[in-house]
Amino acid sequence: MDLKPPKRRTATIDNGETGEDLVLATLIGNGDDLGPLVRHAFEMGRPEPLVQQLKHLMKKKEVEIEDLCKTHYEEFIRAVDELRGVLVDAEELKSDLSSDNFRLQEVGSALLLKLEELLESYSIKKSVTEAIKMSRICIQVLELCVKCNKHLSQGQFYLALKAVDLVEKNYLQNIPVNKIKIVLEKAIPMIKAHIEKKVTAHFNEWLVHIRSSAKDIGQTAIGHAASARQRDEEMLERQRKAEEMNMAGMDFVYELDVDEVAEESVLKFDLTPLHRSYHIHTCLGLQEQFRDYYYKNRLLQLTSDLQIPSSQTFIESHRTYLAQIAGYFIVEDRVLRTSGGLLLDEQVETMWETTVAKVVLILDAQFVRMSTATHLLLVKDYITLLGATLRQYGYEVSSILEVLDKSRDKYHDLLLEDCRQEIENIICNDSCDQMIMKKELDYESNVLAFHLQPSDIMPAFPYIAPFSSMVPDSCRIVRSFIKGSSDYLSYGLNSNFYDVVRKYLDEILIDVLNEVVLNKVHSPALGESQVMQLAANISYLERACNFFLQYAAQLCGIPVRSVDRPRAGLTAKAILKTSRDEAYLALLTLVNSKLEEFMQLTENINWTSEEVVQNRNDYMNEVVCYLETLLSKGQQILPLDALYKVGSGALEHISSSIVAAFLSDSVKRFNANAVLVINNDLIMLESFADERFESTGLSEVYRDGSFRGCLVEARQLINLLSSSQPENFMNPVIRQRNYNALDHKKVSIICDKFKDSADSIFGSLSNRNTKTSSRKKSMDVLKKRLKDYN
């Protein structure tokens, strides 16, 4: 039952009720506090009306309470009726469950009886099955015994042992009849002992025979490896030609010749006695004993084979020695693969490790004694054939080939030393003059052969190359080094030895060629033109690095396109680029030194001249002529970026020299006439800079730059000293626009030295004095503000 909040009610006025009664009824109806009203009633001496109203309200509330109780009573009666209905339903449900349980018990009793009968049937079936199984075992054992007796009577020992082995492994422990089991236990050892004696002698004869055949087996296998190598080289050569012709846009028909090789001809040796002996011993249960016997005897043979014959040198006997080892392990591989467990992988691995350790020691000692590359290459070639042969049989030959890696370093050291001597002779004797080629054949052998051509168009002859003769001569030596390195590294530890060739190629280019060239660059006897030619030569040697990589790729049998990747280049290329920059710095040092000889401004300029000179100084004519010659030479042989570096570096040095002259301690003071003289020289130099920047084609490459910009510091200084209002230098906007290259401290020092010429007798009557006085005042203001600023 929802209880609603009492609504605000208003007291009604009945006949005979006063206004106070109405107020009291209203307060009571609204549930307000009656304290003030009661106090007021008693104060007025009229409590009876209040009492009457309260009684009336009490009666009214009693009526409401009776109505509320009647309403809840009816709901409670209904709830009790519903609960009685639920109890009735529960009784009915209980009765249904009882009847269902009774029926289930009747059905379950019958099923339990059936289950007991089924379990009994299964027990009987199991007993019958076991009896049949025992009978079959006895029949099978007796049949095997009959077969064994037959094989023994016919001398077929292996088949007899197979029958005995089947009885022993599969039936002996499971025979249900004890008498049969006892007879078999006594007969089996006697049969095994009889057969063992018949097969041991044949195996001993085979051991002697197989050792004497090992050398021929090894030589035959190595011969087949050599033939396969020759076929691979021919195929790679055809592939290389096809690639070159394809790159040239020519059609090439690639033919694949397949020569059938009788692989089994390498393996013509009989292992039947070994297999028969091992299988019989296995059937006898003596396989471990036979394994030990075989392993120890073969290990003794191997120890004897690993001894170097003392009657011959290693160069004479290394082929026979290595062939014997190859034949031995070819036999062991066949035994391991076909004998069904006679040899373990660990045993073969142990024999191989022993052999490798011994051979490595021998090769190390022999290689130390070898002093010629021919002997190194001869032994290396046969060792790689041995490795190629045994690798086909699964042997790890990397340890032996690592010896070749050690000799590889020795071999390349000898090659590098020979190449160093040749390169030093070429570079030291080079005159640093541009190479002249009179015939097309000379152009092909010196330029095209090393991809040094600037374009694919054949030039007119005689052709003057931008490099000297040291470039193609050095390239020939490097090419021969690549060929020698490739010949030695082929068929070594790494089938892909391109990276190793590239490593040694980097070594000869960096440690030999680059070092010798840098020594020549820093030679004090060289002049500017020679250093410039060397810088140009280095740039062409850098370009030749691409040819060296392609040539190495061809010899290593990898696609040429794989060396064109960005990360596949030579480190030497970056080193040569650095050396080229170093040569440019050396050239700039020489150029700047020469410019300083021309520009002795403190001596060539009269800093306090009273006369206005309009003509240019002679030293500036010499500077311009020198720069003209330098840039003309550089334009012929240097790339544009290098030409820009040389030109901009020289002009920046001139600009710095002009500013340094003003700052020099030997210049105590100067006047406007000296500034005017330097301004005339600077104008001449700026005109030359603009003309050369355009004529050399640099303006098309460096659109945002110019040679004039290299003179900006000197120009801004001259403009400041020539300005009618030099104090504007302290204006941030004007300074950023017109004098952003000048330093405050330098300007302050220079301005302190700036003194106008003294006024002449009639100077006060001239207009010039007025301008000079105004500029002097502005200069004085600038000097003061610079001092305050600093």
TrEMBL record:
<dbReference type="GO" id="GO:0009860">
    <property type="term" value="P:pollen tube growth"/>
</dbReference>
<dbReference type="GO" id="GO:0005829">
    <property type="term" value="C:cytosol"/>
</dbReference>
<dbReference type="GO" id="GO:0060321">
    <property type="term" value="P:acceptance of pollen"/>
</dbReference>
<keyword id="KW-0268">Exocytosis</keyword>
<dbReference type="GO" id="GO:0000145">
    <property type="term" value="C:exocyst"/>
</dbReference>
<feature type="domain" description="Exocyst complex subunit EXOC6/Sec15 C-terminal">
    <location>
        <begin position="400"/>
        <end position="753"/>
    </location>
</feature>
<keyword id="KW-0813">Transport</keyword>
<dbReference type="GO" id="GO:0090522">
    <property type="term" value="P:vesicle tethering involved in exocytosis"/>
</dbReference>
<dbReference type="InterPro" id="IPR046361">
    <property type="entry name" value="EXOC6/Sec15_C"/>
</dbReference>
<keyword id="KW-0963">Cytoplasm</keyword>
<dbReference type="GO" id="GO:0006893">
    <property type="term" value="P:Golgi to plasma membrane transport"/>
</dbReference>
<comment type="similarity">
    <text>Belongs to the SEC15 family.</text>
</comment>
<comment type="function">
    <text>Component of the exocyst complex involved in the docking of exocytic vesicles with fusion sites on the plasma membrane during regulated or polarized secretion. Involved in polarized cell growth and organ morphogenesis. During cytokinesis, involved in cell plate initiation, cell plate maturation and formation of new primary cell wall.</text>
</comment>
<feature type="domain" description="Exocyst complex component EXOC6/Sec15 N-terminal">
    <location>
        <begin position="53"/>
        <end position="222"/>
    </location>
</feature>
<dbReference type="GO" id="GO:0009846">
    <property type="term" value="P:pollen germination"/>
</dbReference>
<dbReference type="GO" id="GO:0006886">
    <property type="term" value="P:intracellular protein transport"/>
</dbReference>
<protein>
    <recommendedName>
        <fullName>Exocyst complex component</fullName>
    </recommendedName>
</protein>
<keyword id="KW-0175">Coiled coil</keyword>
<dbReference type="InterPro" id="IPR007225">
    <property type="entry name" value="EXOC6/Sec15"/>
</dbReference>
<dbReference type="Pfam" id="PF04091">
    <property type="entry name" value="Sec15_C"/>
</dbReference>
<dbReference type="GO" id="GO:0016020">
    <property type="term" value="C:membrane"/>
</dbReference>
<dbReference type="InterPro" id="IPR048359">
    <property type="entry name" value="EXOC6_Sec15_N"/>
</dbReference>
<dbReference type="InterPro" id="IPR042044">
    <property type="entry name" value="EXOC6PINT-1/Sec15/Tip20_C_dom2"/>
</dbReference>
<dbReference type="Pfam" id="PF20651">
    <property type="entry name" value="EXOC6_Sec15_N"/>
</dbReference>
<dbReference type="InterPro" id="IPR042045">
    <property type="entry name" value="EXOC6/Sec15_C_dom1"/>
</dbReference>
